[in-house]
Amino acid sequence: MKTLDALIRRVPDFPQPGIVFCDIAPLLADAAAFSRCIERMAAPWRDAGVQAVCGIESRGFIFGAALAQALRAGFVPLRKPGKLPPPVRGVDYQLEYGSDRLEVPAGALASAERVLIVDDVLATGGTLAAARELVEMLGVSLLGASVVIELDALHGRQRWHGTLPLHSVLHC
Ligand code: AMP
Questions:
Q1: b/e 116-155 (16+ beta carbons within 10 angstroms → b)
Q2: Which of 121, 112, 117 is nearest to 102 (CA)?
Q3: Which residues form ligand 1's pocket by a CB distance below 6 Å?
Q4: Can you list the domains of the chain with their CATH numbers?
Q5: What pTM was estimated for this model as a whole?
Q6: Which helix (H) or strand (E) element contains residue 38?
Q7: Helix count (H) and strand count (E) of the chain?
Q8: Contacts of 22 (CB under 8 A, 6+ apart)
Q9: Which percentage of the chain shows pLDDT scores above 70?
Q10: Alpha-carbon radius of gyration of the chain
Q11: Atom number, ligand 1, closest to the C-alpha of residue 123
Q12: 96-101 CB contacts, 8 Å cutoff, 24+ apart
């Protein structure tokens, strides 16, 4: 049985020079490993009363939807701009080069709903911070976040301010 770590393909200089891309496709394709990964993501939240998992487009959808099933929670996609019909709520955020935006249907989350944010990779932390800003704007009760891979060298965790838990299955 391969370790989860062995099923992450590291691709140097993709999509641009200097970036080591972490490809999660081999992990997803391995039935036992995918299931083990979701089990490890779910473990810290089993008794947390999570009502909705918010997955970040697009690889956060894969892990977020599976995790929502494991936790018996609903799933809410946080989408890139231009995909959702109005009314939407959104936040703009800065990337290393340029900017991006996350949106959610205005009524997707009930006030005070207990919510968990999910993505595949935590790199510089900008995407997760934007997702947090967006769901907090909606007045939900944010419990924390869960990612599959944390790229330690980029210190993205520093942008996850305060005491809310942020769990990662693997560190690269
Ligand atoms: P960041 O906002 O810098 O934390 O970037 C996180 C987002 O970009 C996640 O949604 C990832 O899917 C993607 N991402 C950033 N860096 C990588 C990487 N080295 N390998 C794979 N995905 C990445």
A1: bbbbbbbbbbbbbbbbbebbeebebebbbbbbbbbbeeee
A2: 117
A3: 19-22, 56, 59, 119-128, 151, 156
A4: 46-171 (3.40.50.2020)
A5: 0.97
A6: helix 31-42
A7: 4, 9
A8: 8, 9, 10, 11, 120, 121, 149, 151, 172
A9: 100
A10: 16
A11: 4
A12: 96/124, 100/127, 100/130
| DSSP-derived secondary structure letter, 79 | B
Q: Which amino acid is at 89?
A: R
Catalytic option among 10, 46, 96, 103: 96
116-162 pLDDT, tens digit each: 999 999 999 999 999 999 999 999 999 999 999 999 999 999 999 88
Structure-block tokens of residue 128:
């997760």
Report the distance separating Cα 51 and Cα 72, nearest Å.
8
